[in-house]
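Exam revision sheet. Question 4 asks you to relate a sequence to its structure. Input first:
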Amino acid sequence: MQKKSKLSLTDAMQLSLFIQQHAEKNNWHPSIVIVDHSTQALLAHRHELAKPGTLAAAEKKALCAHAFQMPTATWGERLTKGEHWVTTMPGVIAAAGGVPIEVDGEFIGAVGVSGSSQEADHETAQEAVQRFCRSLKL
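Answer key, structure tokens:
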């Protein structure tokens, strides 16, 4: 198994490809932001059919998933359960589509996907991260 402690640009491109493949199968048109362990964007792009604001949303999702080391969908679930305090937390976005990247117990970055329904954004990001992590074990 390959040891991975940092995301490279090549890794980000691979993750982006996985996201695009999953989205295309479902006729979704996402914006994608992938940040590394230091929260710096390695890759950011918007599908030509995605609305312009989706790129900023994808970035916020990636940063939130990284900062709290959990999917942004979790914040939405808490809000739905009546935990309105989550809206007062700096950096929280309660919209699904942000997923941290954890390898061997270490958080090495995060993915943010925006442009479709929250469920679709989360599914796409989660699938890509899982596929990426599986590829490291080959």
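Marking note for examiners. Residues 9-136 form a domain with the Beta-Lactamase fold (CATH 3.30.450.150).
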